[in-house]
């Protein structure tokens, strides 16, 4: 291999995959004059439910909203405990605090970054009401074991599927006939993106009905159409709800991306293949393992450095990548180390040692459908160049 050449332009960590179809769909939604929640949102709900194979889909403005609603439908609140992972984005646990309950962290499996069912079991108390596993990076959490724990203790299962569009557990898509509620994100960086957006999936009629009402101010069903000819001006507020619904311009983007999923996923996998081939057998790098039961959606490419084998820290490794014009990120800064959680619960970093060690050695490499093999090959070369320069 020749000398490494730094590219001229910055390679972004993540970019949306924009085709003419997205531009046309948004244009058509704008021209239709129906800008708020309407026919496109309902079409997306129908198509997304059919795609994952679930009875109900409620289109929302974020995954955070979906996670919040899932807990609200169960009446979870003050005095209750909800078990989740510290290796996640803030919303997963913030929403537990939003309902007034207490998030209880269970440590992860160091090979995958997924919540460890044995750790969940240790954290169950008489106050535990629910478990919120995260399908971290696009791997599936161990739903079989977690489901058994939920059964044994009468707990609600609320899956954080923000990374899990296209993830499969035992061959079935996440969200396929779920036992509780499943929350998706369509945030700009996610596998299926519409800028901001989310959905709640469930097979349970009561959960669906309650979440739908709560997602739109607590208005009685059908009130979204109160300005249409077939609609009625009369509505009731059944309880003080939230303003969480998806709207049609979002839905136009989401529908287009859903139709393009196969092609977009194929290109994600091409990039992953470049990384996996380049990093195989490099002792300074530790690759994520995929459990046998699981099909990885490849939302994130998780790379970990082996700190003992390098003369630079993870943070310096990131600086070296930046100097080579590669944008990277970290998923996640362990949530129990964040001020809001330290302040409230007095956590120390070592309280969840595996999540902390994982978080401190992790680097997320660029992975998106618009990345392309050549850019992935450049990133891989940059990583290997840094390893070569700083290996002990
Ligand atoms: C992105 C993300 C969320 C939040 O999604 P929003 O749609 O932005 O609310 C929740 N959980 C995880 C694990 C995420 O990565």
Characterization of this structure:
It is built from 13 helices and 13 strands. The strands form three sheets. It has a seven-stranded mixed β-sheet with strand order 1-9-8-5-4-2-3, with helices on both faces. It has a three-stranded antiparallel β-sheet with strand order 7-6-11, with no helix packed on it. The chain is 38% helix and 13% strand. With 392 residues, the chain is α/β, with parallel strands linked by helices. The structure holds pyridoxal-5'-phosphate. The site of pyridoxal-5'-phosphate (PLP) has 14 residues, from α3 and α4.
Low-confidence stretches: none
Write down how many β-strands occur, each being a DSSP E stretch of 2 or more residues: 13
Task: Give the distance, in angstroms, between the N- and C-terminal Cα atoms.
Answer: 20 Å
Strand order of the largest sheet: 1-9-8-5-4-2-3
What class do helices, strands and sheet pairing give?
Answer: alpha/beta
Give the biggest sheet.
7 strands, mixed
Bound molecules: pyridoxal-5'-phosphate
* Strand portion: 5-15%
Run of helices and strands: HHEHEHEHEHEEEEEHHHEEEHHHEH
Please tell me what the overall shape is. globular
- How many helices? The count is 13
Helix content: 25-40%
Mean pLDDT metric:
97
The Rg value, from CA coordinates, equals 22 Å
């Amino acid at each position: 291999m020749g000398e490494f050449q730094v590219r001229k332009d910055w390679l972004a960590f993540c970019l949306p995959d924009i085709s003419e179809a997205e531009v046309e769909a948004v244009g058509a939604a704008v021209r239709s004059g129906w800008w708020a929640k309407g026919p496109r949102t309902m079409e997306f709900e129908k198509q997304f439910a059919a795609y994952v194979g679930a009875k109900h889909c409620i289109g929302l403005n974020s995954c955070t909203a979906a996670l919040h609603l899932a807990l609200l439908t169960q009446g979870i609140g003050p005095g209750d405990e909800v078990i989740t992972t510290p290796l996640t984005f803030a919303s997963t646990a913030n929403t537990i605090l939003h309902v007034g309950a207490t998030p209880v962290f269970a440590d992860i499996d160091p090979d995958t970054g997924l919540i460890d069912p044995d750790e969940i079991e240790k954290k169950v108390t008489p106050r535990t009401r629910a478990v919120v596993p995260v399908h971290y990076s696009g791997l599936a959490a161990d739903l079989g074991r977690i489901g058994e724990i939920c059964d044994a203790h009468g707990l609600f299962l609320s899956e954080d599927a923000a990374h899990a569009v296209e993830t499969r557990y035992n061959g079935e898509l996440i969200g396929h006939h779920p036992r509780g509620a499943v929350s998706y994100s369509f945030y700009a960086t996610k596998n299926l993106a519409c800028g901001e957006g989310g959905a709640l999936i469930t097979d349970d009629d009561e959960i669906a009905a309650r979440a739908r009402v709560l997602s739109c101010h607590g208005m009685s069903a059908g009130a979204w159409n109160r300005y249409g000819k077939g609609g009625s001006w009369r509505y009731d507020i059944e309880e003080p709800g939230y303003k969480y619904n998806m709207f049609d311009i979002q839905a136009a983007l989401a529908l287009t991306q859903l139709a393009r999923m196969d092609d977009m996923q194929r290109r994600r996998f091409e990039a992953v293949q470049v990384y996996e081939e380049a990093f195989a057998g490099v002792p300074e790098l530790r690759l994520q393992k995929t459990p046998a039961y699981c099909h990885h959606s490849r939302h994130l490419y998780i790379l970990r450095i082996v700190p003992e084998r390098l003369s630079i820290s993870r943070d310096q490794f990131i600086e070296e990548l930046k100097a080579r014009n590669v944008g990277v990120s970290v998923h996640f800064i362990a949530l129990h180390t964040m001020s809001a959680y330290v302040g409230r619960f007095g956590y120390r970093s070592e309280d969840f040692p595996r999540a902390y060690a994982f978080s401190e050695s992790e680097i997320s490499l660029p992975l998106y459908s618009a990345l392309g093999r050549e850019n992935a090959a450049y990133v891989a070369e940059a990583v290997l160049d840094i390893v070569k320069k700083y290996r002990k």
